[in-house]
């Protein structure tokens, strides 16, 4: 078995309907991708698995889905307006722009010229206007991370869900960064999704919680099918961590282009709640915050025993959905050499992530009896609600199996002439390629138990 290179993955994604270049018919837009029929299922399954782990399996986490357009003051007090920048270098000859920290020499990677400008800060946030008048007072940002809306809703959630420390707020949603050099397929893009948990803890317990969340997140990626030797933890050095963080550990994954960040777990201290809060002077805030004259709300929690107001520390596991999809596809992709010397490409996805859980294949597509039996069986299996069940009518049986191996469908069920006589079908296992003949009445239980 061999792991793929990036070209092979990109080609599979396009060929089988996982991921397409956005705006391709007009030449495409760099750093933007669209998820096709298989991609959207895989992405949704990954997000659902994260939500089940972070929200449903716990008693101390609540969910949120906040707006993407963000009040400029939120991103001023969060520090993003001032610090969310990358150093940028322009080539005076070919006029291309590059991130200074991505240049390996003092030459332009495009034309080789040495006539480059000094690095200048470039803000990564996208701006737009809200309302009918386009002026400097009506602008809003497309959020560069989902986290800020969680901090701004801290009191709303506390008031409605009566929480005590420690507790968390989870959110999955789009984030936007005007990356100077988007690259490596969906690894670094300009529009992406994040799965973020802000876990609020008592100051002083933050380091223990940070360690715990790092361990949990490393384990979770493995439970999604990623081999342990593909992951590494990286303690981000103090001079590289974000402005809000006291300590950050990255979960690194061996992507086809190298070992890079899949998820970051930061100890954001009391920086964000402290920055967005009213009455900063009356509270004990450890982080260096900007004096806030605009916030209307105190983002703190009262200790039930001492009645003292505490600004909690926050631990933030922040994962990228798109990088997650890329890592999972990369780990699942195998080219196997079969006994007869031929090869097959197979995505060995965990069943809960597979875009299609079962494909029902009619052996003859021009035979009314077989077609209507297959169609009825698909509808019956779909009602079991374990995910998408598809009627596969696009080719002969061999081609159908190959196609479903490539999109990671765990089971193919074939309806043939014998089915019409004795109500039996064949069920083929993606990984072993073994085939069993089973009665339709037993199929639901069998699939359910194997998919679980
Ligand atoms: P990097 O150093 O790679 O730019 P980051 O440290 O800025 O990433 P965070 O701000 O910690 O990233 O964001 C949390 C997660 O969001 C990252 O671990 C990553 O999975 C995802 N992410 C961030 N930027 C991008 C991007 N441009 N494209 C795709 N995913 C991204």
Shape: globular
Radius of gyration: 26 Å
How far apart are the termini? 26 Å
Point out poorly predicted stretches: none
Percent of sequence in beta strands:
25-35%
Write out the distinct hetero groups bound to the structure.
Answer: adenosine-5'-triphosphate
The assigned structural class equals alpha+beta
Helix content: 25-40%
Number of strands: 24
> How many H/I helices?
13
Strand order of the largest sheet: 3-10-11-17-14-13-12
Summed over residues and divided by their number, the pLDDT gives a mean of 94
Largest sheet: 7 strands, mixed
Textual characterization of the structure:
By secondary structure, the chain is an alpha+beta fold. Helices cover 29% and strands 28% of the residues. The protein contains 13 helices and 24 strands. The protein has helices at residues 6-15, 37-56, 72-77, 80-83, 147-152, 154-161, 206-223, 271-275, 321-332, 368-382, 397-407, 417-422, 440-451; strands at residues 19-21, 33-35, 61-64, 69-70, 85-90, 97-99, 120-123, 126-129, 139-142, 167-176, 191-201, 231-235, 247-255, 258-269, 301-302, 309-310, 313-320, 333-337, 343-347, 358-362, 389-391, 411-415, 424-429, 435-439. It has a seven-stranded mixed beta sheet with strand order 3-10-11-17-14-13-12, sandwiched between helices. Strands 21-20-22-23-24 form a five-stranded mixed beta sheet, with helices on both faces. A three-stranded antiparallel beta sheet has the order 4-9-8. β18 (333-337) and β19 (343-347) form a beta hairpin. α2 (37-56) packs across α9 (321-332). The longest helix is centred in the N-terminal third of the chain and has 20 residues, at 37-56. It is globular, with a radius of gyration of 26 Å. The model has no long low-confidence stretch (mean pLDDT 94). Adenosine-5'-triphosphate (ATP) is lined by residues 145, 177, 179, 188-189, 192, 194, 261-264, 318-320, 322-323.
